[in-house]
Write a structure and sequence with these properties.
The protein has 405 residues and is of the alpha/beta class. It has helices at residues 12-24, 29-36, 40-52, 118-131, 168-176, 185-196, 256-260, 262-271, 281-289, 293-317, 332-345, 364-375, 386-397, and strands spanning 27-28, 56-62, 70-75, 81-87, 91-98, 107-110, 137-144, 147-148, 155-158, 163-167, 180-184, 205-210, 214-220, 223-224, 321-325, 356-358. Residues 17-57 form the HTH marR-type domain.
């Protein structure tokens, strides 16, 4: 990765080595020292302990140019796994993720966030699902469509779920007895991209999602930027249309999310006669794919509004790249022309060549993102994971006696 921060030489380094071998594959001791910016002697000392605990293993020997052959080290997959949980307004997705990012079979469960006992029901579902998994559980990561005060406390404000100060983290920790990290769902995608995705080769970037909402995760110098109250990146509530009187879920009008999120697009499509009252975004996309000029015009306008909003974000954050993602990305060919035109036009010359990358999408990306809250804690040099992150690192450094739940 570009600009990887120096890893703390205390308890963080053993976990950093494990996560690096998990996410990048086998490496020599010299490779580890170079990537993690520590001395070869330190890496040799730490890997000796990890070998003795059975967390890593020596693999083949790679020929070198003139020096001693380099022994490759590899992760023992049974060293641990995380569980990723994505909460939506009508269902929950759950998946087991290994240290190298390998996903198990995802599970989807109905979920009613308005039910008084919804978190108790979620905990019961997770206990059952975790009980079916093998290996050492490092922790549970939860992604939610809303603001979270801190990953380790996990208090959630999510208008789309009808939640205000919902005690997601404390309630789940109390019932599961394992570390639980909670974060805004788009931030979780940004974390996953840091470990396994398009953000792997960049140090400062933004991830923007389109779909039911319009979200943004900001990574600065390799770490998620959360803001003073955990709500940084809420670009969906940037005002882009002063003439739109549609009230957003936030209570304001003219928000980018209310205008070009799924519901906003459908309202406009119904007014234009492109889709009927019972139709969904799938029918709108199909109409655009079939060449319907009105449908394509709606998406072109959406692209222009998104481009205008993101130009301001680029001027503020100064990222290396923009990653576009989310469940609505399948319609990106219809957004792109309008987006490219407006985005480039409103950027200062310094940023007009900034690349934007489009990430292929499926729902498991949300779950991988949530699990990545747990798997990325070895690189948490600024303490975003707090006390729960420290518990994850403790579990990662234990021997094979780790319990699953």
């Amino acid at each position: 990765m570009r600009g990887r921060a120096t890893v703390d030489r205390g308890g963080l380094l053993p976990s950093a080595i494990l996560a690096l071998l998990g996410s990048r594959g086998s490496a020599s001791r010299a490779d580890l020292a170079r990537i993690l910016n520590v001395s070869s002697a330190t890496v040799t000392q730490v890997t000796k302990v990890l070998l003795a605990r059975g967390l890593i293993a020596e693999l083949d020997v790679t020929p070198s140019q003139g020096g001693r052959p380099a022994t490759q080290l590899g992760l023992v997959r049974s060293a641990g796994h995380a569980v990723g949980v994505k909460i939506t307004p009508d269902h929950v997705g759950v998946v087991q993720v290994e240290l190298d990012g390998t996903l198990g079979a995802p599970s989807l469960f109905p979920f009613d966030p308005g039910s008084p006992g919804c978190i108790d029901e979620l905990a019961a579902t997770l206990r059952q699902r975790i009980g079916e998994m093998s290996g050492g559980l490092l922790g549970v990561g939860v992604g939610v469509p809303g603001a979270v005060d801190a990953q380790d406390s996990g208090i959630v404000r999510a208008p789309t779920l009808g939640w205000s100060e919902m005690q997601v983290g404390p309630l789940l920790r109390g019932q599961l007895g394992v570390p639980v990290l909670v974060e805004n769902d788009v931030n979780t995608l940004a974390v996953a991209d840091r470990l396994y995705g398009l953000g792997e080769d960049f140090n400062t970037y933004i991830v923007v999602t389109i779909g039911r909402g319009i979200g943004c995760g900001v990574v600065i110098d390799g770490s998620i930027y959360r803001g003073a109250f955990g709500a940084a990146g809420e670009i969906g509530h940037t005002i882009v249309d002063l003439n739109d009187d549609q009230v957003c879920e936030c209570g304001s009008t003219g928000c980018v999310e209310a205008t070009i999120g799924d519901e906003g697009l459908l309202r406009a499509a119904r007014r234009a006669g492109v889709v009927g009252d019972g139709d969904t975004v799938a029918e709108l996309v199909a109409a655009a794919d079939a060449g319907d000029t009105a449908a394509r015009a709606l998406y072109a306008r959406a692209g222009r509004l998104l481009g205008a909003a993101l130009s301001g974000v680029v001027h503020t954050v100064d990222p290396e790249v923009i990653i576009l993602s989310g469940e609505g990305i399948s319609a990106w060919p219809h957004w792109e022309a309008g987006f490219r035109e407006m985005f480039r036009r409103h950027l200062l010359p310094r940023w007009r060549s900034i690349p934007f990358l489009v990430e292929q999408w499926d729902e498991t990306k949300w779950m991988l993102g949530a699990a990545s809250l747990v798997l990325t804690t070895p690189f948490d040099t600024v303490g975003v994971g707090g006390s729960q992150g420290r518990l994850v690192r403790d579990r990662l450094q234990r021997n094979g006696s780790m319990v699953t739940a």
